[in-house]
Design goal:
Blueprint lengths: L4 H17 L1 H40 L4 H20 L10 E2 L6 H14 L6 E5 L4 E7 L7 E8 H6 L2 H13 L7 H22 L3 H41 L1 H27 L12 H10 L4 H13 L11 H8 L5 H4 L10 H6 L3 H41 L6 H15 L1 H14 L4 H13 L5 H11 L4 H14 L3 H24 L9 E3 L4 H11 L5 E9 L10 E7 L9 H13 L7 E5 L5 H7 L5 E4 L5
Parallel strand pairs: 2-4, 7-8
Antiparallel strand pairs: 1-2, 3-4, 5-6, 6-7, 6-9
Helix pairs in contact: 1-2, 1-8, 2-3, 2-8, 3-8, 4-6, 6-8, 6-9, 7-8, 8-9, 9-10, 9-11, 9-12, 15-16, 16-17, 17-18, 18-19, 18-20, 19-20, 20-21
Length: about 625
């Protein structure tokens, strides 16, 4: 049975109770599952080799070689080679800027010190990336058999955002996953979770279909089940890694590092990068030294109001089963650290010396220049395209502003003006325009939705009623609208109210899935009715038929829908004219259907099928008024 989220959540809930009550027995179960993966592969190998030996032994005893035995021997030899080769799936090397010990001795000294204290393996490679992250990755040279290459992945933005002592705590957490001081078993399972996923991915990408087919049925069941069963242990390992950080750097540094990472990550996304991309409006080329600007921005104190919002957003998040990482609140609680908003916003105080300055030393400027140039080259083409679009939009906004001074804009023009004003002048400038639109049309979808989002961003709960109003008018934004409100309510600590919107989004998503299933085809017992297509749209469709002389008769009806009946689902049934010698070929049917679907611009959601293969449906279609929309001339 497939692992859907509901089944996964139920299993995790049971295993959490099991692990708490009987931790040793739970770990024994996980160990058995981890061993089972190896057992399956080596069992297949053993059976193959046994058959090989058996055939060879039989041939030697018979003192003769027949064609059947020889073919079996060759087949099993090839099969065995394929199996063995599958275990040596090559994994692509990780990407990043390699750091050498001679260039960054302070960084290597730090990693070696922490590795020694935690009895963690030394790293073969340390890579610097542009991610706001740090990670340890073990890349097996021999696939499932191991012989790991150890990588330490460090994000330059993360190192720019943290002072040395907090970065040390982050590094201790990452190396804690491989620590030998505490639970070698947890470290082994941690590696197995990663290795099985990489093995499956490697088999898929290897291009060897035989290898993948041999293991597909097993891995398709085993990996999701092993992931679910070891999920609780993986989460426990996150807490264990935090405790490693506390042992090496202290509770205060570990807790402050966790908080600072959350605050600075949100600051980069919400403020820094948005301000960089805003330059598209005025600059035809992207800025040259973006990461130098990032260094300056991260070294300064984050404004108290923004830091407070980012901090509360992080505390509002709850641990869920989509990720083994616990939420910030749970991690701080496990450390025995009680967060205080007024105290913790000082975490975003100015950084005198960043971890990047401390551990990358004189090479930091070179690294900043490297990532700035790489980013600039990557973004150059889309940046210029967006600049051209922005100039056109600015001109349109200027025209609309000028026109509004002389006459009242249409609602469509007013909405366009509001959207452009928000983009180029900001939230404060657009709010009066949105209120003006709603004064004229209080049900306007875009105005309600935009105003609601702005108000919630300003921590104003009145924004909820505007988004609710937009959702009432346009069902296509139910899920996004509910998620925006849910996120705001969680930040405000209103968990029960947030849950109601979350359930509403989930229920609506289920309706969409049911509607998609309902629209997936047409069956004989489906209720069909006359179409409501206008003569203009009908004529456009008939014009397409002129390009397909093999269409003999066409019927157009609507399927009666239970879900979203306001969105019509049309059924177009065609009878092809085929000669006796040609016969009925499904490939020709598919070509005709695909051709009509590609050019369909007016019917919306439509299902097309060929009556030649479903003759019993024609009688049903004939009974529906005005269903026949086309009949080839000269035919009755």
């Amino acid at each position: 049975m497939a692992f859907n989220q509901e089944r996964f959540d139920r299993l995790i809930q049971k295993l959490e109770v099991f692990a708490n009550k009987q931790p040793h027995l739970y770990k024994l179960h996980v160990a058995f599952l981890a061993t089972l993966g190896y057992a399956y592969i080596f069992l297949v190998l053993a059976v193959t080799l046994t058959l090989l030996v058996g055939i060879v032994f039989t041939m030697l005893n018979a003192h003769s070689v027949n064609a059947f035995s020889l073919k079996g021997l060759v087949f099993l030899l090839v099969f065995a080679l394929v199996l063995v080769r599958s275990l040596w799936v090559s994994f692509p090397a990780l990407t990043g800027l390699p750091l050498q010990s001679k260039d960054v001795p302070n960084l290597y000294s730090l990693t070696n010190e922490i590795s020694s204290k935690l009895q963690a393996p030394r790293f073969h490679h340390i890579l610097l990336t542009n991610d706001f992250n740090a990670a340890v990755v073990q890349r097996p040279r021999l696939g499932l058999l191991g012989w790991q290459q150890n990588y330490l992945i460090l994000g330059l933005p993360l190192m720019l955002a943290l002072p040395p002592e907090q970065f040390r705590a982050v590094l201790a957490h990452e190396l804690g996953h491989l620590s030998g001081n505490h639970s070698r078993f947890s470290g082994w399972i941690y590696r197995q979770r990663q290795t099985w996923y990489r093995l499956a991915k490697g088999l898929r990408q290897s291009g060897n279909e035989v290898s993948w087919l041999i293991f597909e049925w097993f891995l398709s069941w085993y990996i999701p089940f092993f992931n679910a069963y070891s999920f609780v242990l993986a989460r426990m390992d996150e807490y264990e890694a935090d405790r490693c950080a506390v042992e090496l750097t202290g509770e205060q540094n570990t807790a402050k590092a966790l908080i600072n990472v959350e605050v600075k990550a949100r600051f980069l996304e919400d403020y820094f990068w948005s301000s960089v991309y805003k330059q598209i409006q005025t600059e035809i080329e992207p800025p040259k030294m973006t990461y130098a600007a990032m260094q300056e921005a991260l070294s300064k104190k984050v404004a108290h109001e923004e830091a407070s919002i980012y901090f509360m957003q992080a505390l509002a998040e709850k641990t869920n089963n989509a990720d083994t990482h616990p939420c910030l609140t749970d991690r701080l609680k496990a450390l025995g650290y009680s967060p205080n908003e007024k105290k913790e916003v000082t975490i975003s105080a100015p950084i005198k010396i960043s971890a990047a300055q401390e551990f990358l030393g004189a090479r930091l400027e070179k690294f900043i220049a490297h990532f700035s140039q790489a980013w600039r080259e990557e973004i150059a083409t889309p940046w210029r395209q967006k600049y051209a679009e922005s100039q056109q939009s600015i001109a349109t906004l200027k025209d609309l502003n000028h026109k509004s001074q002389k006459q009242q804009l249409t609602l469509e023009e007013a909405s366009q003006r509001a959207i452009l004003t928000l983009e180029f002048e900001g939230e404060e400038a657009v709010m009066p325009l949105l209120h003006e639109i709603l004064h004229r049309d209080d049900r306007n979808v875009s105005a309600n939705y935009l105003l609601g989002q702005i108000l919630l961003h300003k921590q104003d709960a009145t924004g909820i009623k505007y988004i609710d109003q937009a959702i009432e008018q346009d069902s296509s934004i139910v899920i996004d609208g509910c998620q925006i409100i849910c996120s705001f309510l969680k930040q405000q600590g209103k968990i029960n109210e947030a849950k109601s919107y979350q359930e509403r989004a989930i229920n609506y998503h289920e309706l969409i899935l049911k509607a998609q299933q309902e629209r997936s085809g047409v069956r004989e017992n489906d209720k069909l009715e006359s179409h409501n297509v206008s003569d203009i749209e009908l004529n456009k469709l008939l014009q397409q038929f002129s390009h397909h002389p093999d269409i003999k008769i066409a019927y157009l009806v609507q399927k009666t829908m239970q879900f979203f009946p306001e969105k019509p689902f049309y059924v177009l049934a065609l009878k092809r004219e085929v000669s006796f010698l040609e016969g009925i070929r499904e490939t020709d049917h598919s070509k005709l259907v695909n051709s009509l679907l590609e050019k369909n611009e007016f019917l919306g959601n439509v299902f097309i099928f060929i009556l030649n293969s479903h003759l019993n449906m024609e009688k049903k279609l004939k009974r529906i008024p005005n269903s026949m929309i086309y009949q080839k001339k000269g035919k009755k």
